Amino acid sequence: MLQYLVILLDNTSVAYCHADNPLKERNLMPLETLKKGILFGMKQNLMIQYIFPDYELPKEYVEVLESIDNVKIYPVGCKPITGINDGNEADVEATNAIPEKVKARNLVLRLTFNEMLNQKDEIAKLFASGARINLCITDVEQFTDEQIEAYKQVLNEWNSILLDLYKQGQPPQFNLLTDRMMLDKMHNCEAGVSNITLAPNGKFYLCPAFYYDEQMKVDNQLNHHQPTSDNSVGDLEKGLDIPNQQLLILDHAPLCRNCDAYQCRRCIWLNRKLTWDNNTPSHQQCLMAHLERNASRDLLNNIRKVGEFMPEIDIKEISYLDPFDVRKEF
Amino acid sequence: MNIKTGHEPWQHGISKTITFIVTKDCQLACKYCYLVGKNVKERMPWEVAKTFIDYVLDHETDPDFAYESVVWDFIGGEPFLEIELIDKICDYIKVELFRRNHHWFNSYRFSFSTNGINYHEKPIQDFIKKNREHLSIGITIDGTEKKHDMNRVWKQPVADDNGLTKPSERGSYKDVVKNIPLWLEQFAGGGTKVTISSADIPYITESVLHLYSLGIHEVNINVVFEDVWQEGDDLKFEDQLMQLADAIIDGGYYQDYACSFFSEHIGKPMDPERDNQNWCGAGKMLSVDAAGNLYPCTRFAQYSLRDKEAWIIGNIKDGIDKNKLRPFLTLDRTTQSPQKCIECEVASGCAWCQGENYDAAKTHTVFERATAICLMHKARVRANNYYWNKLYRKLELEDLREQYEANKREMKPEIC
Questions:
Q1: Which residues of A touch B363 (CB under 8 A)?
Q2: Of A186, B36, B271, B320, which one has the fewest beta carbons inside 10 Å?
């Protein structure tokens, strides 16, 4: 069920997930489009999430933006001041570099895998900030089996620091390691299912990445003969039209529906980019998600040595890192 | 007491099928052919074939190739147009299997599906003699001369500027039928493949009987998966199949001749969990084309696709990108089927082609099942029920039913 409407206010709105935003030229969503988008969200009973660029929006936008409850996602250091809800706890800062200070209650930190390894200690210092830290790896497709041990090691090191914080009564929130401990079912991105993105051109996309690809004329296939002409799934005039929407839902994902790496993003943009099918994750996505899942299990077990913690959660020991290797074959 | 059923393919379920698209050219330009991009330009160079074979044999222990046996399949266009290349490929495979002490050395087949036109020519006959013990060859003949020549026509002598070939009005029946006796002499029990499109329906009965009369004991016949069907075709189809059922039963053909339209195993409901296997073997198979690109099945090469881009899973230099195979190897029946198929009371035996599913899908996916044959399958089921009810009754009256039930062969589920 659709719950969230993501509104990309500008072509240069901040990237906050796996996909980089390659668009460099400003293209602010027309005010009328914004108003129509908000109206759509109101009628569909959707929570609005605005994605801000790194510049101040014209004053006439402020009143419109604040005409409805919203969450703001903005570049670190570019907090939009509207005078209303400026202290919203759900607001999110997003950045491609470790910030000196986390001001919002939520931080999206986007790094390559090697950047993450090289800055693991600086990342660890963020755990005590009181903010929820969402670390997003931006080059998942480059991850190899040879990097498994390195990832295991850094997750293990972070576990020690997180454990200390639990012992000190300051439970941290770090998506890669603490989310899974709290979950008893899949909690994924659900692009096209629970959320949809409205781009500055007034069209809907499954998520911002599909808009970027369209604008950059990037095809998702290696053997492209022609650029993707249109990734949109409807517009403000005609409404949503998501072909094969059932394939975005968990029960239509054969590998994922029996998986218990519940914290996995199940990024359909990465699915499509790497396997060419929206409902099938790549080896890299599964591998990383399972390393995180297993490390979460270790953390949960270590916390329980100190005291009772989430007794209803059971993360079983498993023998695989990629559910593809244990898939049901007929 | 025996009722003839179709041959199970050699080493069914335990062999890897590896297909060389040796050429995209063919002497014919059949009107129903799904190969919409046939052309005279794309012929496989020897270096591509050799590099591909080396790649496959270098990966003997890779799970993708860890099959007990191998079927080296050659397809076109018309594969025998490239007999010189094929002969060289097969020689190289045999030498390399021996040199490497590869586990496929004693368990391989070379497989061909040909239009039969140049079957009698010396280079092909020499090749057959040389490889006789490891060969499987099927000739496609569509039935009566009228039925065959409706679709299986020669191409125009000159290709267009892009090298694409176009159909002429000249039928090919006479050019094929002359080679049937030689083929049956060399491959006794050989089966032929018949394709039914909308215009062919009135000729089904006479065509199957005609093929029997030519000495072909196994007729593998199917309707095209593409959305070509007209209103009322299903009823005409049912009527034809009932006429065929009467002819086969009344004429006693069922003991020595098989027609794949009739099977005891079709037309039953299917359990969503227990009977959830994919129909198609795409992804378990591997195909290579002249450019050295790899495909999960030939149906995903560009010349097979009307509306979608080729689904290339790698190339002979870089190998297979296993991520691109994951959708194929996780496909099951229910995930790709609409609810009407999951709930269908006559679901078993209703086939699909993964390539056609992909080509016809609304999005870039292999998880959307095309259902253009729905009414045709239901018509087949009705006629099939008629066939078996009539045949069982006949056996009953001849006191042969119990004997038949006791001796009948256990059939594995039929898959592509």
A1: 243-244, 247, 278
A2: B271
